Each structure stands twice: as structure tokens, then as C-alpha cells.
Amino acid sequence: MTEAQLRTATHGLGYGLTALFMAALALQNLRYGFYGLFYLGAAITLLAACGMLYTIVVRRQQLSARLHLPILSGLTLVTGIAQFAGPHPETSHWLFPLILLNFLILPLWQALILSATLLLALTLRALILMPTPDAVMLILAGAGLVALAAYFNGRHTHMVQSAETLAITDSLTGAHNARFLDETLQKELSRSRATGHPMAVIRLRIDHLAEIGNLHGTTVRQRLRRDVAESLFSIIRAGDTLYALDDDDFFLVLPFTPEEGVRVIVERIRRTIRDGAWPPVGRVTVSLGCTIRQDTDTQADTVMARAESALDRACQEGTDRAWFQAEPEPES
Ligand SMILES: Nc1nc2c(ncn2[C@@H]2O[C@H](COP(=O)(O)OP(=O)(O)OP(=O)(O)O)[C@@H](O)[C@H]2O)c(=O)[nH]1
């Protein structure tokens, strides 16, 4: 089941149960002749039914559905008014399903604002109309429900974000993974073309990585890749992104960086790695291929291929080299 399907099912069920519950309460009030409360209950039922219908209509765009906030604000308003519709009968229990519905459907801070409004209405009503011990018990129950619902809403959001981060992160190095590069490079390229700002990319290879692995073992090889990534993170500026490719190379996307800039940064990276201490390997060097976006570049593949070709050229020149390539290699 996808996230959108899960949300459609839970939101639809939440609205549906609220509509049923409120319809039953509205009918009960009609039976006893409390017409004001009957109309308010019917309005809440109608709004909840609209919410259910809306959930079904936007089932494919459930993650970006924007009308839940106005619908739930309307529900909050009518339920708040119901608290002051008259001293009898008791209407405080109308609030509890709505608090749960807010946290089930809305992002945390929106749900908190609406539920705090409901809690305020509940507190005022309880303090005005109820004996103090009963009022305190009711307010504590309402506050407890809000705290519990907020906790689970926050936990769920955190888990979803962690899952999203995991899906785009290379677990060894903490850099983004190659799949995410495919998704983002084209967007960065389009943005750079649209704004006219320069953009540079770098492909980086740790020299003799296979030999280091053979000599020191896989653990050392992996630790070296992780340490190099950490070093790169400490060099690049905010807005630059680092990717760990499947063939052990690294890739950097540098927005707003012209040719002079990328030349500065590759040199800085090359020297920092060469001059660093890398126990137990000792001296480590890297080769770098870099390029910038040309006016003719429309596809991310073209820029990636040019960076790879620049890296091949750097490796041909020997280790601990950087090569800048502006144009595609001429066909041989
Ligand atoms: N994208 C990116 N570009 C860099 C970075 N470091 C240097 N550059 C480029 O190299 C140029 C010169 O950088 P520096 O020698 O650090 O000089 P700077 O005046 O401190 O550069 P600013 O960071 O622009 O203030 C910058 O304007 C950038 O274009 C980096 O970490 N990331």
C-alpha cells in the first residue's frame, strides 16, 4: 500500500466515523428538542461528510491536498460554538473525536493550533459551567489527549522523514546515493539554464583504491571512503551536494560556480586529501575531473559524461591530478 493510499484510507475512515458519530448526536438532540444543538451537529456531520468526499476525490494527490485545513477549521469553529450553545446538555465530548481527526489528517503545527483552540473553548466552558473538580478533570483529559495525539503525529512524521532520507542516502559515507543524483542533476541543470547562473560538477576517484583494498582489506577500504567523504563535507560550502556513486567514485554538484571557481575548489580538495593523514593507509591522493554547464547542455547525461571523460584524462596524466574539460572530447 502506498503512502497516498494509506492516507486516503485513514482520512476517509476518520471523516466517516466523525460524520456517523455526529449524525447520531444530532438526531439524539432532535429527539429531545434541542434544536440549536441539532443544527450544529448536522453542520458538523455535513462538513465531515464533505471531508470524506474530498478525500475520495483527491485520492491520487492525497499528499498535496490543501482543502483539509479549511474543512477542519470549519469543524473546529462549529464545535467551538457548540460549547457555548447552552448550559444543557453536555457538549464537551464533541471535541474529542475532532482533536483526533486534526492530528490524523493535518501536519503537526496546524493540528496543534486547531486543537489548542478547541482546548481553549473546552476550558472556558468547563470553568464557567462546571464544579471545579469536574472542570479540572475534563481539562486534563483534553490536554492529555492533545499531548498524546501530538506525540504520535510527531513520531509518524519523523519516521516518514527518516525513511525518505534513508532512500536517498549512501549508508557508508552519508553522501547522497547515485539514484538520487539521477533525480537531482537534471533539475539542477534546468534551474541553472533557466536562471542563467553557472553550475559546475566534479567527479572524484580515490587513487589506487582497489590496491588499498587488496593490501589492507575491505574494512580499511570502506573506512577510507567514509573518511574521504567526511573530508569533502568539511571542504564544500552549503548548497553544494556530494554523491557516492556505485563504482566507488564521488560526484559533486556545485550550483552558482563558474570555471574559475571550480578550478579553485578542485585544487583545494586535491591538496587537502594529499596533505591529510589517513591511517592505516598513510598517503592518499585523488584524481578529479570537472566541467561546467555549457549553453548547449540540455541533458544531465551530457554533463556527467563530460565529467567522467575529464576524470579519465586526469587519471591518464597520472595520480593526484585534476583536469578541467569545457567541451566534449572530439570523436577519435
Ligand atoms: N561551489 C563552491 N565553490 C567554491 C568553494 N570554494 C571556492 N569556491 C569557488 O572559488 C571561488 C573563490 O573561492 P575562495 O578562494 O574561497 O575565495 P572567497 O572570496 O572566499 O570565495 P567566496 O566563498 O565566494 O566568498 C569562489 O567564488 C567560488 O566560486 C566551495 O566550497 N564550493
TrEMBL record:
It comes from the Bacteria. PROSITE patterns: GGDEF (PS50887). Its EC number is 2.7.7.65. InterPro entries: Diguanylate_Cyclase, GGDEF_dom, Nucleotide_cyclase, Rev_trsase/Diguanyl_cyclase. The keyword Transmembrane applies. The keyword DNA repair does not apply. GO terms for molecular function: diguanylate cyclase activity. Residues 197-327 form the GGDEF domain. It holds the Pfam family GGDEF. It catalyses: 2 GTP = 3',3'-c-di-GMP + 2 diphosphate. The chain crosses the membrane at residues 12-30, 36-57, 69-86, 98-123, 135-152. It is an enzyme of class 2 (transferase). This is diguanylate cyclase.
